[in-house]
Amino acid sequence: MRDPTVISPDELARRVARVGREQFSRSGGPGGQNVNKVSTRVTLHIPLRELGLSEDELSRVEKTLAGRITVAGELVLHCGESRHREVNRRIAQARAVELIESARPPRQRRKPTRPGRAARERRLAAKRLQSRRKSERRPPEE
Hints:
Elements: H1 9-19, E1 21-25, H2 33-37, E2 41-47, H3 55-64, E3 74-79, H4 85-103, H5 117-137
C-alpha cells in the first residue's frame, strides 16, 4: 500500500505544470528569422512551497538545488533547445521534475568498512620497507 503523503513523479509533473509560471523570450543560436522574431525560449519559475512537498523533502531540494533557487524560493529553469515554444515548455517541465525527483530522497549513508587482509598486508610491507630504508641510513653502531 502506498503512503498517501508521498507524491508520485506523475503527480509532481502535474503540480509543476499547474503552479509553474512561464516567461518567453527570444532564443539564441541558429534558426534564421524564427530566432529573431519568435519568443520560443522558456524560463520556468516554480514556487517550491506550492508543490506540496514535505518539510524534509523541501529542505533537501532547497539544499541540493541552492544555485537554481531565487531568494523568493522559486526554482528557475531555462530552455531554448528547440525552435518551438511548446517543445521547450515540455523539456523545461520534464527537467524540473527530474531535478526535484533526484533531490527528494535522503542520501544513503555510507556503510563503514574495514580494510581487507591484502590491504593490511600491503600496508605492513610498505612500513617494513620504509623502516629498513631508514635503518640503513643510520651510522653503524660501534
